[in-house]
Amino acid sequence: MTPRERMTVALERGVPDRVPVFLRDLTLGLDVAGLGTPEVCAGAFDAELSARSVVAAQRELGHDAVVGSIQYCGMEVEMLGGEVMFPPYGIPSVIRAPFDSPEKVDDAELPDASRDAPLSNIVRSYGLVDRRIGREVAILGNVEGPLTKAGILRGLDTLALDMVSDPDVFLKTVRFSVDLTKDLCSALCRAGVNTAMFVAAATDNPDILGGEVFERHTLPGLRAVVDTVRKEGLPTVFHPHGLFSSGPGSALLEASLDTGIVGFQFAEGNDLVEAKRRWGGQTCIMGGVNAFTTLLLGPLEAIRAETRRYLEGCMDGGGYVMMCSCSLHRGMPLDHVKEMVMTCASQGEYGRTRSGDGGPPPGQGGRWTTCPACGHHYDLIGGRGLACLGCPSAIGGCGMTRCPRCDEEAPIDRGASTWLSSLLRRHRAQYGRASFR
Predict the structure, then answer these.
(1) Which of 164, 240, 252, 418 sits a CA distance of 20 to 30 A from 223?
(2) CATH number assigned to the domain comprising residue 186
(3) Are 287 and 393 part of one and the same domain?
(4) Is residue 434 over pLDDT 60?
(5) What are the E-state strand segments in 290-332?
(6) What sign for the dihedral angle of Cα 40, 340, 6, 198?
(7) Coil/strand/helix, residue 264
(8) Do residue 127 and residue 189 come from a single domain?
(9) What is the rounded CA–CA span in Å between residue 49 and residue 34?
(10) Based on the domain organization, do 395 and 262 belong to the same domain?
(11) Which sign, positive or negative, has the C-alpha torsion 161, 154, 326, 275?
(12) What mean pLDDT comes out for the span 107-122?
């Protein structure tokens, strides 16, 4: 199965050969290619260097899906009259919003994403990436959510004040942002997006502007993007920040699903296992390792462990894409990213034993099982090492394991039991502990 096929099957809530990885690396490729930020991003934008960076990162890291261009928040800012700072080896940032007065909102004209630079060259990068790796690798478009884009163009604090004191300016800014995004989506789909459109919505966050604003403005804008992308023959996935796996956000998540999205990426702080249980039958669950703590700081064993935990909790039955909690930019340690990708590739296979350190011998039982009572798919190490902790039989060849979720016992075969008992004895001996307590 090619990476593109793997990603497509997962987004359709099917079971691919293994869990696909989508890094949503927006500027990380510049580190792989050894290029300065202004060299690619400043001015008219260099489509060729951008495409080289995207392809170089995919070849180096081995992820299944890419964004077809180096991207950053504020790609349209300069062409609309604002200012962006391009640090030599940092991430571009907006230093003056283009709509810094109400009059500029009224006078603004939509740029042509296919003709006007730098947008046109970002679109061109997608085409170059598609021609070079698009037959095998999934290419997703990357655009901002309605309030996220409006906050970039007007300034988020100013936009929030507009919402209270000048609703007309607020609505005009949001409408402009949605129209701008729709035009860009169409251009990207026609240039090189071959799998899905990704709507990144960090400030379409109920914790910032409130759930009512999310319902009244984010969701209609999202629906407009979904409809635009669907006309181009492609699906849309959504990534707002905020808590959606529990509490009031759950209702907003369900309303988001009603817009027609096929995937939902959860940011940090959400319970992906609970999300898979509740909504895995309705949408592809996307997310995983915390980008701001685990992936950035490491060490490698912590990255491996967190990756395995998300696989254990979310991959059962398909419909899961391994991602980080947010986008990746330059400065993220490449060896950390590669460790996550490699762990997912080795531990995220469907239909065969996942080979960990010292796994059970071939033909003598798999490493994973499913609880007959609650349906939880769990690693036998978790069942025997956690739920059975302290039981003398755990190291004595017991033919049972215990579900870490509901405590139900289930039989395992002799080979797996022998392997687990030996593993637990060796592990406790490393710490000078008795075989059981």
Answers:
(1) 164
(2) 3.20.20.210
(3) no
(4) no
(5) 320-324
(6) negative
(7) strand
(8) yes
(9) 11
(10) no
(11) positive
(12) 96
